[in-house]
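Q: Predict the assembly, please.
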Amino acid sequence: MRRSQLFTKTSKTIPADEQSRNAQLLIQAGFIYKVMAGVYAYTPLGLRVIEKIKTIVREEMNAVNGQELIMTNLQPREIWEGTGRWDDEIVDIWFKTKLKDDTELGLAWSHEEAIVEMMKQHIGSYKDLPVSVYQFQTKLRNELRAKSGIMRGREFVMKDMYSMAVDAKQHDEYYDSVIEAYKRVYDRLGIGKDTYITFASGGAFTKFSHEFQTICDAGEDIIYLHREKNIAINELEAVKTSEVGNIFNFGTEKSEKMDFTFTNEAGEKQYVHLGSYGIGITRLMGVLVEKLSDAKGMVWPMVVAPVQVYVATVGQSEKVVQTAEELYKALTVAGIEVLYDDRDARPGEKFADADLMGIPYRVVVSEKTLEQNLYEVKARTQDTPELLEINELIKKVAGNLA
Amino acid sequence: MRRSQLFTKTSKTIPADEQSRNAQLLIQAGFIYKVMAGVYAYTPLGLRVIEKIKTIVREEMNAVNGQELIMTNLQPREIWEGTGRWDDEIVDIWFKTKLKDDTELGLAWSHEEAIVEMMKQHIGSYKDLPVSVYQFQTKLRNELRAKSGIMRGREFVMKDMYSMAVDAKQHDEYYDSVIEAYKRVYDRLGIGKDTYITFASGGAFTKFSHEFQTICDAGEDIIYLHREKNIAINELEAVKTSEVGNIFNFGTEKSEKMDFTFTNEAGEKQYVHLGSYGIGITRLMGVLVEKLSDAKGMVWPMVVAPVQVYVATVGQSEKVVQTAEELYKALTVAGIEVLYDDRDARPGEKFADADLMGIPYRVVVSEKTLEQNLYEVKARTQDTPELLEINELIKKVAGNLA
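A: Predicted assembly structure:
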């Protein structure tokens, strides 16, 4: 990608109407655009991060036999009335709208009832179970306040998965496998060691639930850690955390309300055991910004960075430009994604942008180092650059990407 | 994909509440699920088709330098009031909702105003132009009636692209390049020869527009064809068509209303020339069903079929099952996507499902042909099967996929 062709611009000004660091940085770096409080569009660099997080989550959900589908935003009133969750007094985050004939519709803040209603058509026998389906969906939630940037939005992207099982044993086995899948997601994103699983007793709608909490100063939660034992319990050290995933065990409660049954081997009707498993994709992106950023800007892990390398020219001499073009091509051919800053701008401006955007590696092409056929390479997380030949450079970046 | 693990089931019963052939077939084959009139969820097989159509469209939009992003469903009232398009008397397909403080919001049926409002932050100089951005977005439109299945929905997926240029000449050049990109999309989907570009004089909101109309009996439009000249004009043959793409030239009208300007080389403020370019992804999917289906079911082009091969076993003898498993593996390794019907079901039932789902190739594994180390292979569009060795089979399918 050529910087001269990327339409987004960076800004040195912290947006006055944003309190959260994640929204400030993402807006300044041109990753997101604020439509209104809690509602953000994702510009090309931001969309690339979302898609990469989705790819990791998708691979792990497929690995536990999740089947991907996509449900709808528009929701019929009836199915939510059946479980007592249509009433605004009970669920206070509904956005609602109307058809032309005044039929009231909801806009999906969750898809539990919608999934069950659909699965009733396809699940008949114990042979159809266990089964697990998931989606990446835009959820709409009418939050009273929205001050946490993309960590708690009124419109956001969520991965939600739903499992169905014949009994508690089959359910628990699957539930445990998803816990492991979630751990792999956090490990791959580089936040595994700071992420703890916490137990919650459930609430109005669930038997019990677990949350995955990542240590994060901008978090809304507090957990109590026993670091040596690597468990989160109500005793020793209080740390601020942000929820990066939650999983619910519904037992058969929702199935009973919605008459979701199957026939067992003995030919008897039984209620399906349900579980649901969420990861807020855009929230996770916000947590990565909050956790990893420094005074200069964001710091993306290699696996989800919009590109891996920021190539900056110093000056625009023929030799520098020609070499930079060749480097851009060589890196691209090697499967490395590049933001090539081909603008006629001051080096300091380019370096500041590379830091703000949090690109893992910055490569500088200048007359000075070209005399030795070397490139100045600096990791975003390091202060000191090193001088590398092109093959060493490619090997270094590709090695860290694999 | 193993059929025994795919949760969707097929149905022999035509859904009584669906008038359109596309919705009937897609529901019967388990590609979509009807939530309410004009609102459909996409189950795994249906989602795969959507994603493949999106990939083709994405590649062609990238080829004309489109930059992908994603806007929001929730829309602030102000920007649409500014262009006179908030009023339900003017735009009669709005879904509207409210924040907790009673602030009215719209749900995006289009993103023209939203894109312009955002781009105003990033476009300042003639050097920033031309630029083109696009998204794949779920649009919500409050249609009075919704009887055409996924061809005209209340909730549907659309690719919408927006171009910005310094003047009419720069705009026209880009506009023409998108026409060619659209033609490539239809060619790749196999409907290029039946797709005509028609001219419309515009309307309340545009200077002029073009539509791409595909011959389709279920279409809502009529065009007049001069087949020999391959042009659509008001004279000779009237055929029913469905719109599969539209492109609009706004000139500077919307920019003037929204004060969207740039500074030209002489330092003067000028209005940006705008274009917009839509392809209804789910509509296109519906048109493919309507156009290509036959009495037995759907017929997917190789490039967008959910899988390319349906492997069906005849009987479940050890040898048949073992060979089918090996074939499933060999095809997968060769990069061919397979729906492997591993169910203990009657062959006729499996064959009927392969036809209904419209999978391009059906491969039968039976004791009879295995004696000769051969597989019965039948293209969905042909009546007579042929007997092939495994390498011939792979070569045939992979050759048609490339």
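The first helix of chain A runs from residue 21 to 28. Residues 49 and 316 of chain A are 30 Å apart (CA to CA).
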